[in-house]
Specification:
The structure holds two protein chains of two kinds.
Chain A lengths: L8 E4 L5 E6 L11 E6 L6 E4 L13 E6 L2 E6 L8 E8 L5 E3 L3 E5 L1
Parallel strand pairs in A: 1-9
Antiparallel strand pairs in A: 2-6, 3-4, 3-7, 5-6, 7-8, 7-9
Chain B lengths: L2 E5 L2 E3 L5 E8 L8 E6 L5 E7 L6 E3 L7 E6 L4 E6 L8 E8 L3 E4 L3 E5 L2
Parallel strand pairs in B: 2-11
Antiparallel strand pairs in B: 1-3, 3-8, 4-5, 4-9, 5-6, 7-8, 9-10, 9-11
Classes of the chains: A mainly beta, B mainly beta.
Amino acid sequence: QSALTQPASVSGSPGQSITISCTGTSGDVGGYNYVSWYQQHPGTAPKLMIYDVSNRPSGVSYRFSGSKSGNTASLTISGLQAEDEADYFCSSYTSSSTYVFGTGTKVTVL
Amino acid sequence: QVQLMESGGGVVQPGRSLRLSCAASGFTFSNYPFHWVRQAPGKGLEWVAVISYDGFHKYYADSVKGRFTISRDNSKNTLYLEMNSLRGADTAVYFCARDEEGPDYWGQGTLVTVSS
């Protein structure tokens, strides 16, 4: 049950697009389309931003999009805004019927 | 609206036990699986356990297997986490989360501190 690998930090200027990667194995990310992404501001609970690789829950901005290729999933934030500054975590269902989270990425808006 | 509220956290000595609760409202509790997820201070999210909608199927992270037990009472709309043989590494905020093809709605969390 090793954590999925994410870059520790990603930064961008307002209006730019950034992409966060989430790398696992064929036993988790690569084997299932149950990849989710969460946004977490300091001191608050995580908020679901993407589920099933690329689906946005109601109320989440269209600026957030997800995709997957092989064992790596990605979250793209377009038109970066100050409010997007937060920690982002991916998660995946696994072949052991468990779940695993990513190591987390701190997004900084310059 | 969906609401999840954890309780039961606190300071506990190593080797002791603690039971967390998660009260749910705003939806049909018995229709959904549930997760416990924890976050050590300043660290990332760690998945702990999941329970099926009927309570028959339970899965655990290796780090807690044999020490923690997830359970639910659908008549009370409440999820539980029984934690035994607690260690310093178990110190974290514990979140409950509803499952909809992965955790979707989360509670605000309850802090468990394991310290002598």
